Amino acid sequence: MKQFESFRLDTSNECLWQDSVQINLPPKPFAVLRYLVENPGRLISHDELLDALWPETYVQPQVLRTYMLDLRKILGDDPGCPRFIQTLPKRGYCFVAQVKDAGAPDSAAAATSEPQAAISDGVVGREQELARLKTLARELAYGHRQTVFVTGPTGIGKTALVEAACHQMVAILSASMAWGQCVDGLGKKEDCYAVMELLRQLCASPVGETATRILANIAPAWLAALRREPDATIIDARSPQPKAPGDLCRALEEMAKEKALILVFEDLQWANDSTLELISALARRRTPTKLMLLATYSFHCGPTEHPLKGLKQDLVMHRQCTELALAPLAKTAIRQLLSRELEQEELPPGLDTFIYQHSEGNPLFAIALLRHLISDHFLIRAGANGAGQWEQHARFPDMETGVPQELVQLIDPEIEKLSTTEQRVLEAASLMRVVFPVWAVAAALNQDPAETEETCDKLARRLCFVHRAGHDELPDGTRSDFYAFAHGLYREVLYQKQTASRRAKGHTRIAERLRELFAGREDKVAREVALHYESAGNWKHAATALRTAARHAYQRQEYSEAAQLLQHSLAIAENLNDGERGIIEQEIQAELEMARLAIGTAKQPQNTSAEIDGFWMGT
Description:
Layout: E1 2-4, E2 7-10, E3 15-18, E4 21-23, H1 27-37, E5 44-45, H2 46-53, H3 62-75, E6 85-88, E7 92-95, E8 100-101, H4 108-112, E9 119-120, E10 123-124, H5 127-141, E11 146-151, H6 158-173, E12 176-181, H7 186-189, H8 193-203, H9 208-218, H10 220-225, H11 245-255, E13 261-266, H12 273-284, E14 291-297, H13 307-317, E15 322-325, H14 331-342, H15 351-359, H16 363-375, E16 379-381, E17 390-392, H17 405-416, H18 420-429, E18 435-437, H19 438-445, H20 449-462, E19 466-473, E20 479-485, H21 488-496, H22 500-517, H23 526-536, H24 539-555, H25 559-573, H26 578-600, H27 606-618
Parallel strand pairs: 11-14, 11-15, 12-13, 13-14
Antiparallel strand pairs: 1-2, 1-8, 2-3, 3-4, 5-7, 6-7, 9-10, 16-17, 18-20, 19-20
């Protein structure tokens, strides 16, 4: 645990604490902060930071600026007068705060809350959000209506949190509750579908008699729409009347006058205008009532200009709603989630780290990955008849070899909604790992960068799994924006959707474009060039690029790195035909021997090193 001012960096659980409050950080921003905190008081160049965090991938330094902006917001740091992260223009960064070793957070509550109290009503790691909803429930008991938006990406646990909160609030307040599900496309066919579903549930619930009577008296058109036949003494038989939102508002408020009423709207990004107008009216009315609207939605997963965005912003501005934006779970919460699913406290070594890194704190993805490991027998139960503890049976797989089918089925429909052009752009982007510059996507598709940038920008504005990450100036003086997949598993699905030949063609074009951009300085990107050639199956070019990277490592006196690169180059050369392989292998073996000699003689007299340098300079 590292401490700086009021913050503690928990390297074991990969999270940040401020006093006794836990702050969850996604894996990459956490890794950036950790590297800075573990190397305080000195310049950390862009290259050093990029090599540490993306050792096998070429990434423009601009991606670091994006993470620094996020970290400064979390730390409350002013770049003009930095307390934590100082930017040294065109050079790198320096962590300027004093860092010392510290114990766990000294809050008694924090000390006693792990791991038992972290699991509440089936949800893990959402203590702050549940506490906030309990506070709002207490306000509700005094007749202060509440509107709450629970937001976050697919799989982050919105529904689980709402279910747990409703379970607690119903018990505390003896409240009534009804759910309405918004469905993509259904709102155009059936007006106010989610609202009608709520009313059907209310009328069929233990308070159904009261709800039916109130609707008959105040909002008869809504009751008629439910295809119910009210008592003739309550309502006269008349021609159908339009369903007035104001009438339904008054009816719901009357239902919640004495007893609290919780109305849940799920997936509000698919709601039609009529449903949103009703929610807007209910949120803005001032009549005292024990009514809570609790809505979930996934940001950017609906239409590009959905009116929900403007509605929520306006309600937030006027303090007429509360937004709970769910962040990824911390590593400690993922560990607790896995323990619960496997029903054992002690996990197989490395399981929590593997799941956390590949799920990036998304609980739905974490569970899917766990099931994948079990179904493919990477995890098995020990003991007779599989009644013992879960144990690791085989080395955990590289997820690039495949994505769990459960996640493919979840992600694929989102991709299939895109046009063919948009899918091709994202598939080309997946060739560049999680962060992808526009120039690389354009190169892979062999198309105009301006056209590619326009498509990427449109996708980032309406998709939840792609976002704009910044821009940078390329070596030839041109400017290129770059974007990032919000989650690596989206990138994996897109990568696997392509045929091997199309992937190979794209990788080759990216490698060639990299060589063009860095002409005369190929050693700077030799490892990335080699990676693309290797992915394309171009073994000769891959082996050559790795030898260039090894030469560059040697010049930096990184002799062990040079030897590792040459070993890799030697392994790749085995794929060549007999005629090509023999000559290249001899050359690589000679270079490898000299690299090993340099490792052994690094502290020997200067003339010995000079002889070795002469060999490398002459190759």
